[in-house]
Structure formats: structure tokens, C-alpha cells
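Can't paste images in this forum, so I'm doing it all in text. The chain is below; anyone willing to post the predicted C-alpha cells underneath?
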Amino acid sequence: MARFLRPSDCSCTICRRQPPSLLASASNTLFQLVLELDQFVLTSETTYSQYVQAVSSRRVPTRRLLPPNFTVIRLPFRCDVSHKVHRHCQGNGTWKVEMKRIFRSDIEAIRSLTEIENLFLCRYCKRGLFFYSI
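Text version of the structure:
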């Protein structure tokens, strides 16, 4: 078992800080990823992994898994050959592009959003390109 070596007389924040315990990590995971699924709503802050967790749980109503202005999904972004980023995110992207797709059903849209990560998400922040930047 590894021990943290720190001076016993130092009271700075870096020396006093310890990694979270296993119990604290498990509690955080339980409350943030499992119990809060009942309040899940797809927003501009939702990451791809959070979205996949919500879809996989089968506890979130379908309408809360869909982007704004559904049945049409518009993706405004900057890009180079294979990298798409929000217009306000860092990264390369000399082309300004907008794509649009009309989905026939909620299920088709949710399946596309979970299976085609590179198409719908910003490479820089891993959030949906279908949320327009301010």
C-alpha cells in the first residue's frame, strides 16, 4: 500500500489535500450518475458520456433525451478535414458549416446520437453541436 509522503508541519492546501476515499468516490458516482437520472435533461452542458449513461439507464423519458427543435437537428460548426468544433471552441476549423437532418422518429434520433459520436459532438468539449453558441 502506497503512503503519501508529506511534511507533518506543513499546513498549505497542497500538503493537506488527500485523494478522495473509495466511499466518497462511490457516493459521488451513485448520486451524480444514477440517482440524478430522474432529473436528466439534455442541455448544452451534457457530455457524450452523460448522455449515453442516461440512454442506457432506460429511466429517462424519451422527450428529455432529444435535442432542441427536434425532429430537425441542425449542426452549426467549424471544421477541417475530420474535426468538428463549436464555433466558439478552441481548435482548428477554417470551414464554417451547417448540416441539417430530419428524423422520422424519436428512437432513430436517440440511436444516431449515441452511435455516431463524431458526427454530433464537438471534438474539443464533447458536447452537442446542435446547441447554438451564444
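The chain has one domain: 39-134. The first helix runs from residue 13 to 16.
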